[in-house]
Amino acid sequence: MINKRSANYLRRLSSNPFAGSERTGEILAVNPTVAPIRQEAEHIHISVHDYTADSLEVREYTKIDEAFPYLEKDTVSWINIDGIRKEDIESICAHYSVHALITEDILSIGQRPKMDEMNEQVFCLLNMLYFNEEKKTIESEQISIILGKGFVLSFQEDAHRDVFNPIRHKLSLPKSQLRQRSADYLLYSMLDLIVDNYYLVMEKVGDQVENLEDEVSRKSNKRSLARINQLRKEMIVIKRNVSPVRDLVAGILRSESDWLEERTTKYFKDVHDHILLAVDLSDNYRDVMISVQDLYISNVNLKLNEVMKVMTIVTCLLAPATVIGGIFGMNFDVIPTAHHPYGFYIAIGLMFIIPGIMLFVMKKRGWF
Description:
By secondary structure, the chain is an alpha+beta fold. Helices cover 55% and strands 15% of the residues. A hairpin with a 4-residue loop joins β1 and β2.
């Protein structure tokens, strides 16, 4: 029968976010040779921002064919689709002449961030990152963005969160630069917000690293080791999602697409600078985690050395008593002072006096 104390311990263990290897499986379970199985969304939500410098039309739809007419308009159209369903994605991609390989990438999961040019369209695939405050883990959402003639298509997996609200606010302002520019500036704004959000996520992780470093410096335990392992896994998530974006933005800078205006190049260079800094920060955090792990190992070794020192001192102090007891315990007829009336007390005295002298010498030499 499990007592109350054992039950509480098991409850804490089962609720411990650092227990188990499920997170490792989530991070490393990527096999490009196996066709991914995506759970299709029950519903999709389509939001359209159709704008010029002088007008803005905001629409929301639930049927994919309602977004088809914007291909023929002379305005700039941002069509954002929340929820991935194979039939709907293939339908709108076919209408907007999106290459089949790009359609396949949109429907895939676990893709490495990348940039491609097909059918005179610029395709960007990357992940938005979020920090789960409850689980202390990093969550990612794949987003696909297609830049074409006068339109931007974006595909998201989760309809309940994104980082694009500042763009929606700027589009509502007639004098905003976003309203005055072409669709490539909208692409820049989206990439810039995603990259800037990386800093917010890394700041949260940085706070966890600092707290862990203080904990290990003061008093480390087995839970500290679990947190070190957990944070190192989150560093893998950051590195995997942030580093490839550097190549993505660099590909846009090298692109000769007709839909990327030369005057927008300087803005993409700014995003490139930001992502380079984000990559450097991720490397710095990884180095700090290695240092924290080394500090933990050093503390463990120090504690072990302290224990070994105490055990060695105790063994040394017991050695005289062992020797004296062994001598007077030998089976001989003639042993000096063995039959002395005070022989027993002399032996006991030596067993205490000699260790006392040894303690004095060890203390004087600074051995403990």
